[in-house]
Amino acid sequence: MVYIEKGDPELDKMQPGENIIDIEMEHEKKIRAFGKAIESDPRNAGAYTKRGVSKAFLERHKEAIIDFGKAIEIDPKNAGAHQERSFSYLMLHNKTFWQRDLEKSEQINTNN
Questions:
Q1: Hey, where are the domains in the chain?
Q2: pLDDT tens digit sequence for 17-37
Q3: Which CATH superfamily is domain 9-111 in?
Q4: Which of 35, 48, 58, 105 counts the most CB atoms within 10 A of its CB?
Q5: Phi and psi (nearest 5°) for 94?
Q6: Is the model's pTM score more than 0.70?
């Protein structure tokens, strides 16, 4: 179960009558959809990144890190995948890898 605190940006996305279970179900649907996209194109770095984001939202950070890693393997200059993976590392209290990926993301953004 994902908990959203007051002030969380995810609250701004909620529609009247919608609850956190609806949002969780939407992320599960996205995970399946991006999985199908990956099956048809295993080199789709964007699909791996987006699937990782949904997994991270559901607090499945270890799985998300794998998806972000695959996106980075396909496209090493994917700043978004580095940044998202850094967040998942932070949630798992791995500050060394958090800092490494955050710095890499910033480096890529600075060079582009």
A1: 9-111
A2: 557 788 889 999 999 999 999
A3: Tetratricopeptide repeat domain (1.25.40.10)
A4: 48
A5: -105, 85
A6: yes
